[in-house]
Amino acid sequence: MHYSKTATVFLSALTIVAPLIAAAQFGGTTDFCSVLVKIFNVVKVFGSVVLVVAVVMLLWAGILFMTGGGNEEKIKQARLILIYSLVGLAVAILATQADDIVKTVFASSFLSSCVSIPEIT
Predict the structure, then answer these.
(1) Which of 22, 50, 119, 120 is the most buried (most CB within 10 A)?
(2) What are the φ and ψ backbone dihedral angles of 97, each rounded to 5 degrees?
(3) Taking a C-beta distance cutoff of 8 angstroms, is the pair 66, 8 a contact?
(4) At a CB cut-off of 8 Å and minimum separation 6, what does 88 contact?
(5) What is the helix (H) or strand (E) element at residue 64, kind and residue range?
């Protein structure tokens, strides 16, 4: 079990870092600021996808609550879906605002090498 968690984390990190390494070899991304912008773009896309999924799951939980009809199992399932979709909604909001959080918290220390980080569209 421990091996599979470690392998999952490693493969996830490799999936994120590999395109950046490949782009750097062909002259696409060589400085810190451009790599940071690419990472912020990936995080924003991830946050947007999670946001859509969380809203759909919130709606599904509402439908399950309304159609539960007193069935304890359906109500329990709807409650779990509601909790997980609210957690997903929080993660999505934080992911879409991650670039602003990082710029605010770390702007004076290690991001000082960048003159300005371009706005991500």
Answers:
(1) 50
(2) -105, 10
(3) no
(4) 50, 53, 54, 57
(5) helix 32-67
